[in-house]
C-alpha cells in the first residue's frame, strides 16, 4: 500500500512539474505584463510582481489597434478552420475508402507538400494573388491558409476515416443510403473527434501565422494580431517589453479558449456508442 501511494505521489509530482513546464511561458508573460517599468528594468528580477499594475495593458491598447487586429485574426482563423474541414472531410473519405495508385500518390504528395518552406512559395503565391486582386485582402489570406492547412488536415482525417468500421457504411447502403447520405449521416458524426482536432489545428495555425500575413497584408486596418505585435519593437530592435508582454499574453487567450471548448471532442471516444452489442 505504501509503495502504491509513493508511486502515485511520484506520478502526480511528475505531472505537476510537466504542467508547470508547459505553463511557464504563459506565466512569465503574465508576470511581465503586470510589472511596472521600474520592475522591468531592475537588475534583480522577481517571479511575482511586487506592485502589479494594468498600465501595460492600457498602454498596449492605446498604442496599437489590438482589438481590431484580434477581430481580423478571429475572422481569418474561423474561416480557415471551417473551409479546411469542409474540403478535407469528403477528400479524406475518398482517400481512405478508395485505395488506388492515384490515392497513394495523393497521400505521398500530401506528406511531401509539408516539407516545402514558406520562402520557397511566397513569390509565386504573391504573383498569383496579385493577378486575382487578392493582395491586402483577408479573403486572399484565408485562401492561403486553407491551402497550407489542407495537407495536414487531409492526413489527420484520413486516419480517422479508416478507423470507422466499413460495416456501418455497408449497413447504410443496404438500407438504401447513397454515398453522400452515408458520409453525412453515418460517417461524419463518428468523425467528430477528428473533425474537432482538425479544426483546432487549422484555427491555431491561422491565428498564430505571421509570415504570410506580413507579406500579403499592407493596410494597417487589415493586419492580423501577430503582425501588430511586431509594432511594439522599435526601429533599432528595442522592444517595449511591458506592453508587448501584455499584448502577447492577450493574444494567446483565444487559442486556449478554443482548445478548452473542443477538448472533450478531441479526447472523447471515436466510436463511443456507434456499435451496440
Automatic annotation (TrEMBL):
Listed transmembrane segments: 12-30, 74-96, 108-129, 141-161, 182-207, 244-262
Domain ABC transmembrane type-1: 70-262
Membrane topology of this protein: Multi-pass membrane protein
This protein's name: Sugar ABC transporter permease
Subcellular location: Cell membrane
Keywords for the protein's UniProt record, in alphabetical order: Cell membrane, Membrane, Transmembrane, Transmembrane helix, Transport
Species this protein is from: Streptomyces canarius
Gene3D superfamilies in UniProt: MetI-like
Lineage: Bacteria, Bacillati, Actinomycetota, Actinomycetes, Kitasatosporales
UniProt similarity note: Belongs to the binding-protein-dependent transport system permease family.
InterPro entries: BP-dep_ABC_trans_perm, MetI-like, MetI-like_sf
Pfam families associated with the record: BPD_transp_1
SUPFAM superfamilies listed in its UniProt record: MetI-like
